[in-house]
Design brief:
Blueprint (H helix, E strand, L loop, with lengths): L1 H5 L3 H9 L7 H13 L28
Amino acid sequence: MTRHLLSPSQPRLRAFLAQLLTTPDEDWIGYLGDAFLAFHMNMKVPARVRSGELAGFHAPTLVLGT
């Protein structure tokens, strides 16, 4: 995926999608190629909340941790 994102080409896209798709389909290859190039992956860790910043926050919240 990284190779395709850095330097897009059909062979790189097909090599990447061969690992994702069990049955390659020309329609899906074109669609997924465009989708991966358009999607911006932000891998930054969110900033920690400081004490008191959420004092007035009242809403259902899902917290996931490892």
